[in-house]
Specification:
Layout: E1 6-11, H1 15-34, H2 39-46, H3 50-58, E2 61-66, E3 70-75, E4 78-83, E5 87-94, E6 100-106, E7 111-113, H4 122-131, E8 136-140
Parallel strand pairs: 5-8
Antiparallel strand pairs: 1-2, 2-3, 3-4, 5-6, 6-7
Helix pairs in contact: 1-2
Amino acid sequence: MAAEPFTYHRQGRSRITLCSLLAVWAALLLAIIAVDAAPWLMAIIALFTLPAVWELLTNPAAGLRMDARGITWFSGKREVDVSWNEVDHIRLDTRLDFSVRATAVLRGGRKLRLPYEATPPHQAFEAALQDLGVRTERHHFSLVG
């Protein structure tokens, strides 16, 4: 296990989030102006955009670092550090929306799910795990688990 350390880092604030938020608000405003939609109903729908607004304002960081010693991931104020001695394998589950969720399965059977926002793109992640000699398992389209 003498591979180079692998790091991944991302910020919560993104151009895609901002553009999506502006598009939703523009559509709601257009519905009020052009179709005479009820403003109170559009305001209720706009409430569903508040988590995206919060993410833009707080800009939470998330990331992951792997080296010969172990794996560390963080998301916001949460941080987990696990030694490779404790890890049996890393399970990569492809969901129906084609997102890949990662879980560290410990030797005792306990599972630690990596936060989605701290998980790197799955091809690079799996390649880095293999470079470090960590066993991986792929599971496609699992609805539970």
